[in-house]
Structures are given as structure tokens and as C-alpha cells.
Amino acid sequence: MNETTPGSEARLRSEIEDLKRQLEEQKKHAGARPQQPKGPSAVTLLVIAFVLLALVVAGFFAGFLPRQRREMVLAAESQSEGLSLPVVNVVPVKRSGAQSSLVLPGNIQAVTESPVLSRASGYLKKRYVDIGDRVREGQVLADIDAPELAQQIRQAQAVIDQANSSIEQAEAALLQGRANADLARVTAERWRNLLAKGVVSRQENDTYQSQYQAQQANVEALQKAVAAARSNAGAAEANLARLNELLGYQTVRAPFAGVITLRNVDQGALVTEGSTLLFPLAQTDRLRTYVNVPQADASSIRPGQHAALSIPDLPGRKFAGEVTRTANALDPATRTLLTEVQVPNPAGTLMPGMYAEVDLAVPRKDPPLLIPGDTLVVRSDGPQVALVAPDGAVHYTRIQLGRDFGDRLEVLSGLQEGQLLAVNPSDAVREGAKVKPVSSSEKAAPGKR
Description:
Layout: H1 6-32, H2 42-84, E1 87-92, E2 94-95, E3 99-117, E4 122-127, E5 134-135, E6 140-145, H3 147-197, H4 202-248, E7 251-253, E8 258-260, E9 270-271, E10 277-294, H5 295-298, E11 306-310, E12 319-331, E13 336-344, E14 355-363, E15 369-372, E16 377-379, E17 382-388, E18 394-398, E19 400-404, E20 408-413, E21 420-422, E22 436-439
Parallel strand pairs: 1-22
Antiparallel strand pairs: 1-21, 2-15, 3-10, 3-14, 4-6, 4-9, 5-8, 6-7, 8-10, 10-13, 11-12, 11-14, 12-13, 15-20, 16-17, 17-18, 17-21, 19-20
Helix pairs in contact: 3-4
């Protein structure tokens, strides 16, 4: 240690003594005058404010600015990373509704369509309707001139007269036979009494008894002849009634209300009974359409079920109908159920022969999933879709398809509801690649890019 010199020690002691004297003088002055309370001076307040401002500025530069710089760096990094990833439109997997719309093709037909034939042979005398005419039930369609039918009626009347004459002859013969039988009966009784008295021989009696039996048999034969003659007369009368009925068929009438769909004969044409088609008649106030329902939906079709018909030539219009009956059996060749759908047509807008699309509302207990058609990827190992995970990773998975609706597809297995699928995946969307998913429903606001 360094030792203190005597001169410096003396100097320190004199300075200490001076300080003590000054302190005692100050105490004396303080005791002589009363102390007054003093507030902080302006200088002190200015210093304090300056110190606080310095602390705030130091905290701003030491804490907020570095944090803001870090956030800006992170935003720039994320923006650069997002710009570097390929942008992919995605759509969620959705489940179809409880009712499925089943659209099937069909041809419209009339509920009742009948060919009008002639029951009388002759020449077409007058035609009152033409193709496209609407007729009422019982309305006269045509008249047929059948001169041969009148001759047949006169001939049948003559046959009836002959039959009646034959009946009269048979009845007269029957009366004569009964008279002969009565005479033979009386003679046979007399000879039986004489034989009992022993007046005549047994042979003579047997002769008269046989004659009586023969007369009885003759009476029975004559009775049958009368019955046969009456039957012949009845047959002749029935033939005459038939001819008179055919005479009424010279006037052709409509069997029901409908539309004449074809004119097959003209005035003066030869008409043959039962073979010449005059007019096909169709009932068009109610039409029907046959459709073939696939096996997968056959169990959901019931009579009374609602259906809607649409005609390609009548866009925007729907015609309400209902299922009236089904075959209750599948066609083994096509595995389809033949179903009849009827639709009212009071205005006559629909016509038989039209092509129609029948929309059946089919209820489903377990509705399948639906995906857009542009998400499907067809490869050699089967249909696939590109799944986009929440972190942006792409994974291709195989699916089992159901029905094809054109813009939508049913998926029976391989997906879950809510998963995101890439729309029209490009070559950049590979297995395991990172992408930036963007919902296809998002659209840019007007005026912005």
C-alpha cells in the first residue's frame, strides 16, 4: 500500500475543518429564520418531463420498431412464399339431397287408340271427317252404301217364311199322328178285352198292341220334327236380326271422343267388312309415357308418385303427371322396370308420338356424395380425384362412381363430406405437392383485380 505524506494529510484535515465551520454557520442561519415550505421548482419539473420523454423515446426505438420490422419481414416472406406456390381452385365434397331427380327418356302415347273398321261391306258413300278433326263419342264419321246387304235381308226374310211353313206342316202331321195313335189305343184295348174272354187268339192281340206302340213312337217323332222346324225358324230370324244390325253399321260412328290421326279411305272406295281400316282414332285428353327405370332405383318407384314431363321443343314448360302402374318385374335383358306415367292434356298441347324426358322424384335413405364433373381425373388404374389437405398438400385417391348427371357425379366410396377437391388439376398439381387452395366460389369484387 502507498503511504500518505504529512503535507497531504494536513491539507485534508484543514478542508474538513472548513466544511464543519460552514455547516455550523448554515445551521445558525437556519435557526435564526423560520423555514417556509417550498414546492418543486420549474427546473425540477422540466427535468422530470425531459427524463420521461427520453424514456418513451428509448422504449419506442428499443421495442416497437424492431417488432414492426420483424412483422414486415414475416409478411414479405409469407407473400413471397404464397406467390411461389401454384394457385388451385378447390370445391368441397357435398352430399346430395334426400330426393334424387331421375330423368329418363320416353315416347308419349295416347291412353286409348283404336282403329275404326267397317262392319258392312260396300262402297264409301260419304266421309264427314278428315285427319286432325276432333270428334265426339257417337258422332257420325262416314256412310257406307251396301246394296248386297239389302238383298241378303230379303233372302233371310224368305227363309223365315219357309221355316214358318215347315212348322205348320210339322204341326199338322203331329195332329194326324196323335189321331192315329188314339185309334190304335182304342183298338188295342178292345182286343185285350177279347183276349181275356178267349174270343180272339193271342197273336191277333199282339198285332194290335204293336200297332198302338208304333203310333205312339210316330207321335214322338212328329213332336221332334215340330221342334226342329221351330229351331230352323229361330235361326232364320237370328240371321235376319244380324243383317238388320249390319244395316245399322252402314253409318260409322266414333266409339269415343278423340282425334282422327289418319284418313285411310276416300269417297267411293271399296270397303270390306272387318278388314278395311277407315280412321285411326286416338283419345288425347290424357296421355301416357312408358319409361324404363334402372334396377338401382326400381324399388323407389310406386304408383301415385309425382312425375314431371319436359319436351325439348317446348323449353321452360313442365307438365305434371304421376306414375299409374309398373310391371312389378324387371326385364332380364335390360335389368329395367317398365313404368307407365300418365299426364293430363286438356289443352291438347302434347301430341302422341312426341319425345319426352320424364323427371321422377326418387327418395333416398342414404344419399350419396356429389362432386363436380371437372374434378374427375381418369387414369389407367381407375377414376381419381386430387384431394387438397388443410396444409395445401395434394393427394390423389381412387373413388367409386355412381350415376353421371353431366356436370355432377355421384361418388359411392372413397371420399368424405367436406373434403376439398382440386378443379381441373394441371400438371403442377402432383402427388405430395404444395399448392395454394382458393375456393372456386370466391369472385373478385367489381373494379378490383
